[in-house]
Amino acid sequence: MPLPVAPGVAAARRRETPSFTRVLALARSFGGRPLLIEGAGGLFVPIDAERDMIDLIETLNIPVLLVARAGLGTLNHTGLSLAVLAKRRIPLRAVLLTKVMAVNDPSEQDNAEWLWQRHGVTVLGPVPYAQDPTSRRAADRQALRPLLTALAQRQRAPPRLETRSETHG
Predict the structure, then answer these.
(1) Rounded to an integer, what distance in angstroms lies between the CA atom of residue 99 and that of residue 107?
(2) What is the band of 76 on the pLDDT scale with cuts at 50, 70, 90?
(3) How buried is 61 (Cβ within 10 angstroms: 0-12 exposed, 13-18 middle, 19+ buried)?
(4) Cross-strand pairs, 65
(5) Torsion angle of alpha carbons 107, 109, 114, 120, nearest 10°?
(6) pLDDT tens-digit series, residues 99-118
(7) What is the distance of C-alpha 17 from the center of its chain?
(8) What is the model's pTM?
């Protein structure tokens, strides 16, 4: 089973030289067909010694579905990710909040509203916690259904993300 580490780290552990060019060529080989690229841990996860996932997203000019934990800490972590996406003018489709533990986290009830109010982003979820993979996939599909329906109904990309600081100076 593969180690749960960043792609660039995994390659280095195998004594391989990670290749951004190879990853880019693989992504482009789909020739315009719909493509979903999992960020494997975040925007600043290294692909090689110089470039990260966000560099791949920017180079391919693809929109982002930002997945974030639903609980405590998400306002900061998600806000930082939204700020860097806005700075690089990378389009955002939505933020998908997901529960990562079975415990009750009181911050979950407010996070979606705060993200929407502060950043003006579409927020989906939270996807409920499910320990087994089959239940987890079903919950993910249910949470994504509104976004997929909206995307299927329109051909043009949504407006680019602007954070509060950009719009109010």
Answers:
(1) 11
(2) very high
(3) exposed
(4) 94
(5) 140
(6) 888 888 999 989 999 999 99
(7) 25
(8) 0.77
